[in-house]
Each structure stands twice: as structure tokens, then as C-alpha cells.
Amino acid sequence: MNLKSFANAAALFLGLGLIAFQFNKGSQQSQSTIKPPAAEEEKQQKFERWQVKSIYDGDTLRARRGEEELKIRFCGIDAPELKMPLGIESRDYLRSLVELGNGELLLVPVEKDRYGRTVAEVYVKDSRSTAINLNVQMVRDGYAWHYEKYSGNCPVRGEFARREADLFEIAQELAQKEGLGIWKGNPQPPWEFRRKAKK
To answer: Is 178 helix (H, G, I), strand (E, B) or coil?
Structure first.
């Protein structure tokens, strides 16, 4: 591993560690918060607790809380469509990550998209009581692309970009270098696949 790869891996590890630390710090309360690092930012990102109902693909799922139900689109990533190579594997990998948290999801809603889905960052608690950012993890393990066009509002990107560590970009670069998942071959991004399918 060269020095640049090592530095990128360390930055990704540090960024994800800070997320877990901030999560654990607030986990004693009934509703956890991630505090923004910049004092001028007044908004705090709040986790909402939901249960997974179903997982459609590697970046879309349904969640429920009592009688309430949401369709969630992961912020900042785009996973292969089910009909694409590794589409089913991407969905199944997301299912395995969600199982780490026994189906409980911690959501940070960002906005509604044009299809009425809630765009969110999605976390699960693992067995060590730390939080895994599924958005970044799917990219890091080669089961989704960083969808830069739609990642500007993602809370994790805003928090750590000021520290010169864009976790999505680092995660994707590492997955590419290691030839993981979609990066084993010459992948077609899902946005290109969808554009061609409309023609």
C-alpha cells in the first residue's frame, strides 16, 4: 500500500470513527444527535429510530415506525439497478449490513426527492454499540457509486469536507484500488443505465 492509499484509508477510518464517537456520546439520550463541528451551524442532525420493512435494492428501502411508513433513498450514493450486474448482490449486501443492527435503522432525514421518497443517511448499530454509516459503507465495499451530483446535502459530507476528508470520495477510491464489487470490471453507472433504458 503506498503512502497516499494509507493516508486515505486512515482519513476514512478517522471519519467513520468520529461518527461512531459522536453517536455513542449521544446514545445515552432517548434521541441521539450529531453535533456539527462548526459553531456557526445552528441545526443539529437528529437520528430517528425506525425498523426496516423491506429492502428494494442497494440504495432504497422501506422503513416503519408504528403505523408510519417511509420509502428511503440513501443520500449521496447510487447502487446498481436489480437488472444490472451486481444489482442483486448489492441489495443482499445491504440486507446483511442491516441485519447487524437487528433491523433497527437510525435515520438522518435530509429532504424529499421528486418521487416523494425521504432522502436520508442511514445508520445501524453494530454489536460493539458503534454506528455504521450505511451510505459510506456501501461505497467503501464496492456495492454503490458515490453519486456526487446528489451528495452535497448529505450531513456526513458537510461535516467532514471542511476537514479535507470527503468520506464518499475516499471510500470510492479505496474500493476502486482494491477492485471490490462493482470495481472488479468496467462498471456502467446506474444513472447511465437508466438513461439508456428510457430511450
So the answer is: helix
User: Tens of pLDDT along 148-193?
Assistant: 888 888 888 765 554 546 889 999 999 999 999 999 987 888 888 8
Least Cα distance to 67 among 53, 56, 57 occurs for: 53
Active-site positions read 73, 81, 117
The count of other CB atoms within 10 Å of the CB of residue 149 is 9
Q: Are 75 and 147 in contact (CB under 8 A)?
A: no
Q: Could you tell me the CATH number of the domain that includes residue 50?
A: 2.40.50.90
- The residue type found at 23 is F
Contact of 1 with 10, CB cutoff 8 Å = no
Interatomic CA distance for residues 49 and 64, integer angstroms: 9
Q: How confident is the model at residue 47 (pLDDT cuts 50, 70, 90)?
A: confident
Give the structural domain span for 60: 3-198
Please tell me the distance from the alpha carbon of residue 63 to that of residue 78, in angstroms, as a whole number.
Answer: 19
Domain count, the chain: 1
Helix-then-strand count for the chain, H and E:
6, 10
Q: pTM here? A: 0.77
pLDDT in tens, 9-26: 554 554 555 444 444 444
C-alpha grid cell for residue 171? 471510500
Burial class (CB in 10 A: 0-12, 13-18, 19+), 30: exposed
**Nine-digit cell string for 106:** 437510525
